[in-house]
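Re: beginner question about structure tokens

> Can someone show what the tokenized structure looks like for a real chain? I only ever see the sequence side.

Sure, here's an example I had lying around. Input first:
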Amino acid sequence: MGASPGKGKPKKGKKVRVAFRQNRSKPPRQNDWTRRAREADANEIDAHASENLTAKGDLTRQRTIMLHGDDGFPPELTAGVVVTMRGLYADVDAATGVIPCTVSRVLRTRLIQERHPVAVGDHVGFRLESSGDDRTEEGMIEYVAPRHGELRRLSGRRVHTIVANVDQAIIVTSAAKPYPKPHLIDRYIVASLAGGITPIICMNKVDLDESGESRMVLERYANLDTTVLETSAETGFGIDALRRALADKSTVIVGQSGVGKSSLLNAVQPGLRLRIGDINEQLEKGRHTTTTASLIRLDLGGYVVDTPGIRSFDLTTVPRHEYEAYFLEFADHIAHCKFADCTHIHEAECAVIQAVEDGKVHPDRYESYVRIFEEPSAMS
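And the corresponding structure tokens:
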């Protein structure tokens, strides 16, 4: 968008060649089982597992598009932020309001390694198109800016970005109904740090913690120099501190169902009127009231992304050998392990295991590390 050094001309993008989708050219034979299989589920875009014979050569089945860098937003497009996603349809918040958009075929082809090439929180460029009645506007997303701060999970063979471009994750747990699950909190912390997001632990319903046991769980994270908050959406306790944490930040709100994520947001900004789920008293599990991630702008500045309640979080996008880096209390001990490739599970003279025995690493945190490391789905 800016001028090139010494030339005074707008910086141009980089021309690249991209292949058309298979259904853009005639197949070499009528019984094209490969094509039929690919079209069986129009909602899922699979990567090409192998080369296939086609009726035309590779060069004739490609087109040239322009790629833009971090500072190369296409000037002919309208800028906006994705606030909700429904498959390959997005609602984009632009200067003129929220515009319903689709994702261009070329963009889907370029980003085929993603289950969805566009995520909530993405900064995008779209081309306005008038609908048939000429009274409403629709758009076609043709550009996605480079991301930072991603919360991701694996869906089938695809990496699914739940939310992008966030600064921090407020991990909401509750003192009771349901009781806190430290292992789930640890999984959220790993996912956040791996995605370049700062984790903050928020314990809601502290008014129900008569014994003080839940606060002891919170203290273990405070001792790791992690920001912790105590709140009660019911009484209003701690809501001002939560507002200060949210102000002028982009934040994803995560946590299992029933901990009060929507109630907290309603308390932070009265008038949102987000649906609040009931608690199954027997199972102490919340009923899912948020079904898709959605971006909510705050009056105090910044925005939050409210996500569906997730009772178990997938870490298969994080390589196994990186887990030790996301358990921050391990850092002072890893260098003293006997073996450079120590997994801190069974090796002799492991400084991390010794730190657990010496009380320098909380045993529950170490147990979380072992459980995550030993999951069969973890990446090598």
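Each token stands for a local structural state, so reading them left to right follows the chain. Confidence is low (pLDDT under 50) at residues 1-29, 36-70, 278-291.
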